[in-house]
From TrEMBL:
InterPro entries: GH115_C (IPR041437). This is Gylcosyl hydrolase 115 C-terminal domain-containing protein. It comes from Aspergillus avenaceus. Pfam families: GH115_C (PF17829). Residues 277-380 form the Gylcosyl hydrolase 115 C-terminal domain.
Length: 383
């Protein structure tokens, strides 16, 4: 079982490079990565606790410390950038995130001290290298906190705050627009409305929708700052009752201070049956490299490389010493998908492993074709 796919994606020294490695705005990417680290830390800690005390020090040094310390650094940077988003929305919880970042910074030093003191200091200072606060290729003179976001309490501001997924602004008068939903979205992708305080105080709220086939978690409640300044209402669609075609659902968020509104585009369409390929949700299709059918040729095919890349795995040609190939002589990877929208221009993106044109007489190329049309060949590296 693979628990964390985000472990090998970024070096800690690169987390200060802009733009930030993971988006706090789109697809909840940063929070998904953070949860993967937390899941991995839980697994590593449970394993450590189950071991005999005689081998726990070795496991801590080789496994548990890298997981705890690495996840803590990731949490520090992710919460820092989440704080920038919260500040743009005037959330009072911005300040709470800043304190959590400070706690993570302190925890980093505590973990280092724990490692250095293990086995009476046998490996003292071996992991003392600086790793937080890089400003270039060289390490900083000491670990240093990134710039943190804070907001000031303004008793004159409207305390009701409302934000939706994919927008960095909160409600200011015009209805907020959520990202569209359709029946073929990945199970991990959700739509939600965040209710929060923009000033210290307390208010009650209630969310109502004009669509009977929509349900929400936390559809009513109370938020207060300080204490419980944020709540999230997750939207669920009953697709058996949703109308066919394109429609728009409206939400009204009422509080004892003011009212906010949000709209949700809903697309329900039918797919030819039977169909077993990938289906386009929300004008994008993302397919793992290994989720293909393969057409070998002349004893040459492709093989999967488990855990290679940012997500599931990678693929490579096999065997690794083939003669020069063309689209007509080389093996094919076939990915079946069904497009639900039309566009004059579409973007096709390949994620490739690091390489070079190591043989000038055989520059690296790839070829692709859509729906059996004539293939196109492109160089991996420009001249």
């Amino acid at each position: 079982m693979r628990v964390c796919t985000g472990v090998a994606t970024k070096k800690y020294s690169t987390l200060t490079i802009e733009p930030f490695a993971w988006s706090t705005l789109h697809y909840d990417e940063a929070l998904h990565v953070l949860q993967e680290w937390r899941d991995l830390a839980e697994l590593a800690q449970c394993t450590y606790d189950s071991l005999d005390v005689s081998v726990q020090p070795a496991f801590f040094q080789l496994v548990l410390y890298p997981v705890l310390a690495g996840g803590n650094v990731m949490e520090l940077y992710i919460l820092t950038h989440l704080g920038y988003l919260y500040k743009s929305q005037l959330r009072t919880s911005t300040n709470e995130l800043a304190e959590k970042v400070r706690d993570a910074f302190t925890k980093d030093a505590d973990l280092t001290d724990q490692y250095n003191g293990l086995l009476d200091g046998r490996w003292d200072h071996i992991i003392d290298s600086r790793h937080i606060g890089y400003a270039g290729r060289n390490p900083p003179p000491a670990n240093r906190l990134p710039a943190l976001a804070y907001v000031s309490d303004d008793p004159e501001i409207n305390i009701l705050g409302v934000a939706v997924q994919g927008q960095n602004a909160s409600f200011t008068g015009e209805p907020l627009l959520l990202r569209p939903v359709d029946p073929y979205m990945p199970p991990s992708e959700t739509r939600y409305i965040d209710i929060f305080t923009r000033a210290n105080g307390t208010f009650s709220y209630k969310i109502q929708s004009n669509a009977s086939y929509i349900s929400l978690t936390n559809a009513n409640g109370t938020v207060t700052a300080p204490g419980n300044p944020d709540t999230r209402a997750i939207i669920t669609i009953d697709w058996t009752k949703a109308p066919h075609g394109k429609s728009m659902a409206a939400f009204t968020i009422n509080s004892n201070h003011s009212t906010a509104t949000a709209n949700l585009p809903i697309y329900k369409y039918s797919i030819p049956s039977p169909y077993t390929g990938y289906i386009e949700p929300n004008k994008a299709i993302s397919i793992e490299a290994a989720h293909h059918s393969v057409e070998p040729r002349h004893g040459i095919s492709y093989t999967e490389i488990p855990y290679y890349g940012r997500t599931l795995s990678g693929v490579k040609i096999w065997p690794v010493t083939p003669p020069p190939l063309t689209p007509d002589t080389g093996p094919k990877l076939i990915y079946d998908f069904y497009a639900t929208s039309s566009a004059e221009i579409a973007r096709l993106t390949f994620l490739l492993g690091a390489s070079l044109d190591h043989d000038p007489s055989r520059p690296l190329k790839l070829a692709y074709a859509l729906d059996g049309k004539e293939s196109r060949t492109t160089r991996v590296f420009a001249d």
